[in-house]
Design goal:
Layout: H1 19-25, H2 31-44, H3 47-52, H4 63-73, E1 75-86, E2 93-104, E3 107-120, E4 123-132
Antiparallel strand pairs: 1-2, 2-3, 3-4
Helix pairs in contact: 1-2
Length: 133
């Protein structure tokens, strides 16, 4: 397996067997899977997916522009999932703490966040996050 085919979410699987199906069908089964697929969407610049997987109650007026700016300005280079609380296939809410590394204007950085997720109908949605540090 070529490393270039690995999903950027860090699962160790190929993109086709991992986040691609979520990007096409909006069917992440857990909060962690949604968080990983959103990270991969930032890597690939999939703005529509990121907007559509944000809980409707948290889709701000400028959300699309903010996401597009982040996708353009940051080159995401790695993801580590630190903790998960609930967020399983039978849960209604979940939390995931993650650390994502990036490069911006030639300088490396780290984004650490405790993200909150909630079901909207049957789909997991990103609600908001508390940035650490």
């Amino acid at each position: 397996m070529k490393e270039a085919n690995l999903c950027p979410c860090g699962s160790g699987k190929t993109y086709e067997l991992c986040c691609e199906t979520y990007h096409k069908h909006f069917n992440a089964p857990t909060a962690e899977a949604l968080m990983r697929s959103r990270y991969a969407a930032f890597v690939f610049g999939l703005v529509d997916y990121l907007v559509e997987t944000t809980h409707p109650s948290h889709r701000t007026k400028h959300l699309r522009e903010e996401i597009a700016f982040t996708c353009k300005e940051l080159a995401w280079t790695g993801l580590s999932v630190l903790t998960c609380w609930q967020g399983g296939e039978k849960d209604k809410v979940g939390k995931v703490t993650f650390r994502a590394s990036f490069v911006q204007e030639g300088k490396g950085g780290v984004h650490e966040e405790l993200s909150r997720f909630k079901r909207f109908g049957t789909a997991w949605m990103y609600v908001d996050g508390e940035v650490k540090g």
